[in-house]
Every structure is written in structure tokens, then in C-alpha cells.
């Protein structure tokens, strides 16, 4: 992985030199996230397992250089306390380059991306009341990877295609990615249809090129606060793999916005792990269970959001999470 990131950064620097003749503007921003988590997992292998913890989640520093010709260079540095399996590493915080890619506009509404970028391009639906986390599509995305992607968006429809090296895509986290065997390559694509403002229906597909594993996500969402404070989304996901049972799942969510707050409720069914803040730790995972989610997001400042969420599964597992996100 380190060699891959070095190559990406070298490529980005070369591409930046090509554009250096034009004026450039550099901006620096980022995000800080901390949380409190309380869970009770009745299905843990060692018996009932409870977790009550406050932890630092991550800090991200974003550096973006934009050029007059429309191209840009984006680099994101992250600090996280994660271990080899992606869980909490205690007091150890690791710093690494999470993303580094060059973007060039191609066609009106289109852009080409080259480098190490978030694998949810082009899987991201664009709607979620849970602004800190995503749904099934986020859980099925190809991980942060080195490759090439193209996105094209118009008022009526959108399209995305990404081809990446599956070695990084299969890594559990970017700190320990060197321990993952070479898996060749992977690709994903997505198509969105937007017939009216706020309404979007999409289908995403990914082929991981390992054990012939494929991933499919179909979703629809609506959010237009100029028309109604009510928003909603529905997702269906399916995973197929050689020598393994097929997995499928669905998730439905409804939200209501009032002032600076959003209240939401959701229900999920199936074997695919849907990312909610109350299930993002190994002590409490909601796959293999139907689950109900209820939460509230409140904007406490111009760039700060506080989110509380409660989850309960059919196995009587309970989880409560409270997370603060600050953009800067």
C-alpha cells in the first residue's frame, strides 16, 4: 500500500506541475469526530457482552488545490485509533494518507478522478438522515483504493464508473493494508435517475474479481425541504459469491426535519451489515438480525452536529450511540 500511495502522490505532483502555469487556490479543512457508545450484545460468543465507552473516532485534514483550468488536487490525512482488524486500538492513534487524487473536468457535468479515492465513488446515494454514516450501499462499497473513476451528473440522471486495485479495496483499514494479499482488480458502476427535485432512484453494481463475488444495490430516496419536511429512503442489497450462500437485505428509513434538528426512524431486514453508528463496533453487529433504528441529529453550531441513535434487534440486543462531528 505504501508503494501505491507513493506512486499516487508522485502522479498527483506531476499533474499539478502541468497545471502550475495557471493560478491555483489552496484550501484546508477537515473534520473531528468523537463518540459515546453503550451496547448490550446477547449473541456474543462469550455470552452476554456489554460495552460502555467514550472514544476518539477520527480527525481528518483535507487539503485541496484548485486550478483555473478546473482541475484540482485533493489529499486527505487521517488520524484514527484502529487496530489490524479495524477495531479500537486503545490509546494508539495512527496517522496516514487516506485519499490522494487528481480531478479533471471532462464533458459538461463530468469529471475524471485518478489516484487513491473513497471507494463509495460511485456508490454513494447522496441521501441519508444519518449524516455521519450510510446505509447498505455504504457497507457494500469497494474500500479506499488506487484506481481511475469517472462521474457524470446532469439534472435528470447521473452515471459513475470506477476501476481500482482490489488489494487496497479488500484491506480492512489503510494502516495495515500491506498485510492483505494481492487480489487483482475490482470495478463498480452506478446509474441514477432524478425525475423531480429531491427524488433519486439508482442502481449500483460491483465485481470484486475474487471468488466471483458481486454486489448489487438498488435504492430510492426523497429529500426536498422546500416542498416538505418529510424525507425517506429505501434500499435493497444482494451479494453473490462462489461456494457461499447468497445474501440479501433491505432497509427503509423515514425522517422529519424541524429547525436545526432531524428525527429519523428505520427498519432493516437481512444478512448484510448495514452501517449505523450503534453497530460500527465488533461488540454489536446487526447482521443476522432484523433491527429497528431511531435517532435525532441536531446542528449545535454552524459546523457542528450532535447525533444520538438507538438500535434494537430481534434478538433483544440494544445499542445507544452519541456522536459529535465538527467540520472546520
What would you note in describing this structure?
It is a single chain. By secondary structure, this protein is mainly β. The protein is built from 3 helices and 16 strands. Strands 1-2-3-4-5-6-7-8-9-10-11-12-13-14-15-16 form a 16-stranded antiparallel β-barrel.
Shape: globular
Radius of gyration: 20 Å
List low-confidence stretches.
120-134, 168-181
Strand line-up across the major sheet: 1-2-3-4-5-6-7-8-9-10-11-12-13-14-15-16
Number of helices: 3
**Percent of residues in helices:** under 10%
Biggest sheet layout: 16 strands, antiparallel, barrel
Q: Based on helices, strands and strand pairing, what is the structural class? A: mainly beta
* Mean pLDDT, all residues: 75
- What is the N-to-C succession of helices and strands? HEEEEEHEEHEEEEEEEEE
Give the CA-CA distance, first to last residue: 29 Å
The count of DSSP E runs of length 2 or more, i.e. the number of strands, is 16
Q: Per DSSP, what share of the residues sits in E-state strands of 2 or more residues?
A: over 45%
Briefly summarize what is shown.
This protein is 8% helix and 53% strand. The protein has 328 residues and is mainly beta.
Write the layout of secondary structure elements.
Elements: H1 2-19, E1 24-41, E2 49-67, E3 72-80, E4 94-105, E5 110-117, H2 136-139, E6 145-153, E7 157-165, H3 166-169, E8 185-193, E9 199-207, E10 214-222, E11 230-240, E12 247-258, E13 261-270, E14 291-301, E15 304-313, E16 318-327
Antiparallel strand pairs: 1-2, 1-16, 2-3, 3-4, 4-5, 5-6, 6-7, 7-8, 8-9, 9-10, 10-11, 11-12, 12-13, 13-14, 14-15, 15-16
Amino acid at each position: 500500500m505504501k508503494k501505491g500511495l507513493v506512486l499516487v502522490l508522485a502522479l498527483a505532483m506531476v499533474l499539478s506541475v502541468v497545471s502550475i502555469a495557471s493560478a491555483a487556490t489552496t484550501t484546508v479543512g477537515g473534520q473531528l469526530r468523537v463518540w459515546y457508545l453503550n451496547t448490550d450484545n446477547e449473541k456474543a460468543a462469550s455470552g452476554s457482552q456489554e460495552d460502555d465507552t467514550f472514544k476518539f473516532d477520527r480527525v481528518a485534514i483535507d487539503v485541496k488545490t484548485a486550478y483555473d483550468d478546473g482541475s484540482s488536487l485533493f489529499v486527505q490525512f487521517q488520524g484514527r485509533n484502529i487496530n489490524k482488524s479495524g477495531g479500537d486500538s486503545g490509546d494508539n492513534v495512527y496517522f496516514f494518507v487516506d485519499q490522494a487524487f487528481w480531478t479533471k473536468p471532462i464533458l459538461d457535468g463530468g469529471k475524471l478522478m485518478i489516484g487513491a479515492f473513497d471507494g463509495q465513488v460511485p456508490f454513494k446515494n447522496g441521501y441519508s438522515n444519518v449524516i455521519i454514516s450510510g446505509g447498505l450501499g455504504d457497507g457494500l462499497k469497494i474500500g479506499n483504493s488506487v484506481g481511475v473513476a469517472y462521474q457524470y451528473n446532469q439534472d435528470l440522471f447521473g452515471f459513475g464508473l470506477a476501476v481500482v486495485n482490489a488489494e487496497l479495496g479488500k484491506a480492512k483499514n489503510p494502516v495495515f493494508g500491506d498485510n492483505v494479499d494481492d487480489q487483482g482488480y475490482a470495478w463498480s458502476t452506478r446509474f441514477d435517475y432524478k425525475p423531480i427535485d429531491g427524488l433519486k432512484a439508482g442502481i449500483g453494481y460491483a465485481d470484486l474479481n475474487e471468488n466471483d463475488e458481486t454486489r448489487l444495490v438498488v435504492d430510492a430516496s426523497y429529500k426536498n425541504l422546500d416542498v416538505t419536511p418529510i424525507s425517506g429512503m429505501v434500499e435493497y442489497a444482494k451479494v453473490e459469491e462462489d461456494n457461499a450462500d447468497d445474501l440479501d437485505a433491505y432497509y427503509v428509513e423515514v425522517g422529519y426535519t424541524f429547525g436545526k434538528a432531524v428525527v429519523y426512524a428505520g427498519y432493516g431486514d437481512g444478512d448484510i451489515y448495514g452501517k449505523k453508528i450503534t453497530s460500527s463496533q465488533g461488540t454489536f453487529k446487526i447482521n443476522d438480525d432484523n433491527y429497528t433504528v431511531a435517532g435525532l441529529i441536531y446542528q449545535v453550531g454552524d459546523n457542528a452536529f450532535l447525533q444520538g441513535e438507538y438500535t434494537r434487534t430481534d434478538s433483544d440486543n440494544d445499542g445507544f450511540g452519541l456522536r459529535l462531528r465538527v467540520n472546520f
